[in-house]
Amino acid sequence: VGIVGVGNNTSALVQGVYRYSQPEGINIATERQEGILFPKLCNYEIKDITFSVAFDVDSRKIGRDLGTAIYSEPNKYPRIFEEDLKTGTIVQPAPALDGVPEFLEDIVEVDQVSKPSSEELDSYFDFCVEKIHLSKTDVLVNFLPSGSHKATQFFARAAAKGHAAFINCIPSPVVNSPEILELFEKENLPLLGDDLESQFGSSLIHRTLLQTLETRGLEIMRSYQVNLGGNADFKNLQFRSDAKQQSKKKAISTISSTPDRINIVPSGGFLPVLGDNKIGYLMIEGRGWLGMPVNIDLKLSVQDSSNAAGVVIDLIRIAKGAIDQGLSGYVSLSYYFKNPLDRKLDTDEAIEVIRSFNSDTSA
Ligand SMILES: NC(=O)c1ccc[n+]([C@@H]2O[C@H](COP(=O)([O-])OP(=O)(O)OC[C@H]3O[C@@H](n4cnc5c(N)ncnc54)[C@H](O)[C@@H]3O)[C@@H](O)[C@H]2O)c1
What we know:
Number of helices: 11
Strand content: 15-25%
Bound molecules: nicotinamide-adenine-dinucleotide
Strand order of the largest sheet: 5-4-1-6-7-8-13
Order of helices and strands: EHHEEEHEHEHEHEHEHHEEEHEH
């Protein structure tokens, strides 16, 4: 597995894969505990995952082992292991492009090598393709900051040229980009996206509650969702929330008959004291029999990046399973994404789709 963006999500993923690959961790990983939905998926267990390549722009991460870089500032995901982890994979430089806008420059230290001139970009692209290809990376995971449209396009194209499947965890259009989709079809590679839906996050809970009210015949009068956090992604979302807001809105409005009565604020504030903890406030006002009110006020507190890793761990194995089965182009997995190409399935339907990838599974 290759990684683009060694931030908090990557820290949660790398530490989790390490933990569940240790003898004591494997017992947990094979028994559906700690948020592991599929102990075995597409014939792969968590311990079968290794990290082959990683890219970042921060001088505190470039040149270091991925297992050390994940603990560098400004990452805030908790440190589970005292010792630095040894993955044997050294973080490679990448061109910053639109990955670090001005308002992130005080927390991300962009290395000089990540500021190429426009003439140098082609050779930078070849460099990244070569790293992906020579490391025999099967699946490249995009964990760039939200709003990094150019950098996302750059790495999706690099994955296609370097013969890796691509998982787009962020709102920038990849499966929703006809050119990129065509590229992956042409190269016979799977493409998964767009924008991860957290394992147990605000979008899921908001959608489920709204849907339940509507299917029970109640009318939704007003509803909002406000999220607060203290990691770099929240700082970023304060300024670049457009794509995220649309994606979150789409994740919810597909099931609601009154989407204009729902407001969503992806980042209602950057509160450093929260670190990688995320707080979501949901409010729903409904109306039932004889117009009588039904009100819900809910506070959700979650570890933001565990919420991402718990989903990506399945997507990595499905992407590899798709390669093994010779599938290419868009892989229909609306269960795991906020902005897929196809209709959002209900949980039972979605689990059936996932099982269809899973010829031999213990789940
Ligand atoms: N539950 C979740 O955490 C969740 C859910 C859905 C989507 N996402 C998305 O996942 C993405 C990653 O989240 P995160 O919390 O790890 O973010 P983060 O800000 O902690 O990490 C981003 C990393 O990308 C690096 N970077 C910036 N520009 C780059 C470039 N051009 N090339 C390579 N690296 C570059 C940064 O230095 C940083 O290390 C975000 O876009 C977020 O919106 C997260």
